[in-house]
Amino acid sequence: MSFISKFKKNITSDVSAAINDSDKDSDISSKIVAVTESITKVIKKYTLIPIEKIISGVVGFMIAIFVGPALVVLGIIAVVRVFNNYVLNRYVWITEAAIGAFFLIVGTVLVKLATKTDKQG
Prior knowledge:
This protein is mainly α. It has one domain. It is 85% helix and 0% strand. The protein contains 3 helices and no strands. It has helices at 3-22, 28-87, 92-114. α1 packs across α2 and α2 (28-87) packs across α3 (92-114). The longest helix has 60 residues, at 28-87. It is elongated and about 90 Å long.
């Protein structure tokens, strides 16, 4: 059974259930309102709710892409400032050398991982 046929079957069953529920009312206007409301709920269920989930995921991903690197850079700046000003007052070069060594090691590992080739052939 394809996606379209499942979709049609679900919508048909939801709308027919709403029409059957509205048969209990005697007033035609209340029946029309009930059916219209149920059709609106079905349309929202199958269109708006999935779109809202997708959009919220995309927005969260975009925020993470832009805020994540900024937080990393600000954190590195904070670490360097703390070490320069409070830990090693007179020996700033030690802090700079340590941070440089850290980034050198991280960069080397990342380059090795990026250029790793499969030796099996």
